[in-house]
Amino acid sequence: MREQTTLPSVLQGLRLPVIAAPMFTVSYPELVIAQCQAGIAGAFPALNARRPELLDQWLTQIKQTLSEYQSQHPDKPVGPIAVNQIIHHSNQRLEEDVEICLRHEVPIFITSLRAPMPEMIQAVHAYGGIVLHDVINLRHALKAIEAGVDGLILVAAGAGGHAGTLSPFALIKEIRAHYDGPIALAGAISTGEAVLAAQILGADLAYMGTRFIASTEAQASADYKQSILQAGASDIIYTDKISGVHGNYLRQSLERAGLDLENLNQGPKGKIEYSKEQGAKAWKDIWGAGQGVAAIHHILPTAEIVNQLEAEYRAALDAVRRFA
Ligand SMILES: Cc1cc2nc3c(=O)[nH]c(=O)nc-3n(C[C@H](O)[C@H](O)[C@H](O)COP(=O)(O)O)c2cc1C
After folding, report:
1. Which of 168, 188, 199, 251 has an alpha carbon 20 to 30 Å from 233's alpha carbon atom?
2. What residue ranges do the domains of the chain occupy?
3. CB contact at 8 A, 264 and 290
4. Residue 189 CA: which ligand 1 atom is closest?
């Protein structure tokens, strides 16, 4: 396992080596605040704010709430805020959203799809922030390293939302051969023992999305949260038909939208026009989730989820020590 002291200072001092993953239509300020107050890094996608002005307001609100909380609880670790930026020509808000996050000195930028621009990375470094980029394979990782990112998020098979297909065992070993910097591992990590396993494999941190959908603070509907509890790993369907990029979704929501699962992945590559006929919208009615659903049995406040993760993490550490 790697020493946490090798991490950028913003990632040191977390209560657990966990970054909560940003989730479109799920991670809003209430969840981010609860995650940071629980001592892990809290994240949301900039695009969850319907307009850039709202992003500005959210950041003011989150920072203020966390700063008050920290002064009332000086001994508690309060996690840093991370904002996700989608680097793609279709994201017309990118420049404005980045400018707002820079102004607020957001400590962690999480970039997805394309590698981030060097000017953006420099601007984040200017106030001591860091940029983590999420990748699903070595080719994307090498591009991000070349662009000068401060760390990689490896999105392995079974992750919620847009996910890769590679086993975490293979992915981390392959990328570690080229990169000694900070790595967060993602994909079906829903328990404290899985967080420890990620570290044993060579990651510095775990990156967890699906586990937090079934939290009281997540913006997901009651039905969405219930189907997370009911689903097993085989109820997660991997397809590019919903957004055009391969991702993992809950079977129940695909069936409710009237999609023919037997033949879903047949036909030409890419998104299908299901929404006009069925009236279902990606992410809102078609629910993203990873194979880690199998380990989720209760909807809990985020503080309790993190307590549970910590207890599981410590029990797993003890078990490893006994085994050793
Ligand atoms: C409902 C949902 C929405 C997501 N939205 C985004 C997003 O907007 N941007 C992004 O970079 N990743 C997004 N992701 C991916 C997560 O950030 C993360 O990679 C994934 O949840 C980790 O795997 P896990 O869900 O198995 O823990 C989303 C995932 C889910 C489940």
Report:
1. 199
2. 10-219+296-323, 222-278
3. no
4. 27
Pick the atom of ligand 1 nearest to 289's CA. 31
Q: How deeply is 2 buried, as exposed, middle or buried, from its count of CB atoms within 10 A (0-12, 13-18, 19+)?
A: middle
Average pLDDT over residues 60-79: 98
Element (H, E) at 208: strand 205-208
Which residue is associated with the tokens 């009651």?
Answer: 222
Whole-number Å distance between alpha carbons of 102 and 189:
30
Place of tokens 């102004």: 103
Which of 18, 24, 91, 93 has the most ligand 1 atoms within 8 A of CB, as the residue to mutate?
24
Interval between CA 319 and ligand 1 midpoint (Å): 30
DSSP-assigned letters across all residues of 219-232: ---HHHHHHHHH--
Ligand 1 pocket residue status of 24, Cβ below 6 Å: yes
Give pLDDT tens digits for 119-163: 999 999 999 999 999 999 999 999 999 999 999 999 999 999 999
In the reported structure, the alpha carbon of residue 163 is separated from the centroid of ligand 1 by a whole-number distance in angstroms of 8
Q: 262 C-alpha to center of ligand 1: Å?
A: 25
Instruction: Please provide the DSSP assignment of 140-190 as one string.
Output: HHHHHHHHT-SEEEEE-BT-SEE-B-S-HHHHHHHHHTT--S-EEEESS--
Cα of 21 from ligand 1 centre, angstroms? 6
